[in-house]
Design goal:
- It is built from eight helices and no strands.
- The protein is mainly alpha-helical.
Length: 180
């Protein structure tokens, strides 16, 4: 089921707000700002690291000489995807703060996500591995916006429904906030 614009943007906006609260805890603990995280490419590095973990769970490039390969555990895949989503949401919040501070253009994180979601570029799970490995090209040092469209295509490629992702994100965020 594809959500309508109001429902999707409401949930995405709520996730951005929840991530903002978690980010505040983390930034206070480590004494960093969104600008620090943005300018030092922390988002790119973190996302590439987490995409590596996700790729491992998908067993995308398992060694050909291995005789046995365990089946893909979709619960672990979903968990790794949520880790990636947390970085994207934080990156969107940092981008929004940077835009507001510099008056540079008009960046609307929720609309950016909606536009990617409504394209509904769903694929099969084997194709998801290609998306995992393609996302780093959007994480280069000169790229200034988070790869929202890529993460939503990946969600679709993994066969994850947005409602399921939303619930899993909210659950994981509570756990992460409790441990921060």
């Amino acid at each position: 089921m594809i959500l309508d614009k109001e429902e999707f943007t409401s949930k995405w906006s709520h996730m951005l707000d929840v991530q903002e609260n978690l980010d505040k805890q983390i930034r206070q603990e480590y004494g960093i700002t969104y600008t620090d995280m943005y300018n030092r490419n922390y988002y790119s590095y973190a996302l590439m690291y987490l995409l590596g973990e996700l790729s491992h769970e998908l067993k995308a490039y398992w060694p050909w000489h291995e005789k046995t390969v365990e089946p893909v555990d979709m619960m672990k895949v979903k968990d790794k995807f949520i880790d990636c989503l947390q970085i994207i949401l934080s990156w969107q919040n940092a981008t929004w703060e940077r835009v507001v501070e510099t008056n540079y253009g008009l960046y609307q994180p929720v609309i950016k996500a909606w536009n990617a979601y409504r394209r509904d570029e769903s694929t099969t799970v084997p194709m998801a591995a290609r998306y995992v490995n393609g996302i780093p090209k959007w994480c280069g040092f000169s790229y200034v916006e988070p790869p929202v469209g890529a993460i939503i295509r990946l969600m679709n490629g993994l066969g994850l429904r947005f409602e399921t992702v939303y619930e899993a994100y909210m659950e994981k965020n509570q756990t992460t906030a409790a441990n921060a």
